[in-house]
Here is the input.
Amino acid sequence: MILSRRVPDALAMLIAVALGLIAGSPALAQDAPQLPTAIITAESLTNQQQGTIDAFVTHRTAQLVDGEPLEVSQARRDLYEPFQVDGATAAFLGYHRDTIASRLDAAFASDRVLVRLNAMILITRMPGRVPEALIDAGLDDSSPAVRYWAARAVREVATAGGLGAGQQQAMLNRLTGRLEAEDATAVVEQLFVALIALPVDVGAQPLLESINHRVSLHAERPGSSVQPERAAMQELFRQLLSAGSNNPPRAAMRQLSRAAVRYMDLLATALEADAVEEHRQQQYADTIALADHLLRTLHAELGGGGSVPAAVTDAVGDADWATVRTAAQRWRGLLQQAPYNFSEDDLGV
Here is the structure.
């Protein structure tokens, strides 16, 4: 596994420890219960075979909860490896998965972050539907590392598709509720990906509400990463334009325009004030360029009138943030007219 550059260093280090990437694996106890291949590949399971699986899972989950750090990560690997065996049958996979899920309450109740993190990684990687109660426990965890993997679990469920209307709404409620309180960039990014994976008519408006809500959070913390918002706006823009000319999602297009002009002004202001560390300045510049492109394209799609500001491409290249802010101000004026009809307060930073 290669850890993303967008995952903060402390979070990446904890995940690396949890995955056992920093040191070797402990030796497996000779008397530890094992899973014979004959059980993993059985088309149906006898009571005795189920008992063998129960004993295997009970031993490994106890090691997961009570073991030393390397034993914890080894227990997680031992529990997961049978899922990857060639020829593993649906009968085994389902029973093994459900047995593991039923034994993880103690892990999620542990006061050791490493235990909860390994349990969440295991849940995220197991095949089949992830138990929602365990995802919720992970999303509410005090550790951003655990929340990151819980958000990945939500993303996996959302991107897999096949959710009914009621399940989509439950997923939506879960995501928006978490986003209101989440401040870890890596976690926010995973939650945004999950929202984007929902159908446009379900996820677009709540996603845009969250993106717009986070403008004030970034205003309070100038220089903070906007990578999740940039990636979400770019992907949502693509989805909106491919939604079909017969039924264009105009309300979402208007809200995306609102977000674009607010981020353009917010980021240009931070850059002009020299409030952005050097390693993040390109991210801000790229987001401003994206916002400018979104505003122009969506204005044309929506049939907006008025005199459109000049493109800010040259200004961004020259780091002329005052010119960018002037363009944002002009866009703000346009967005107070039809077909947008936003108020001045709607467009403030």
Observations:
- The chain has a mean pLDDT of 88.
- The chain has 17 helices and no strands.
- The radius of gyration is 24 Å.
- Residues 26 and 68 are 10 Å apart (CA to CA).
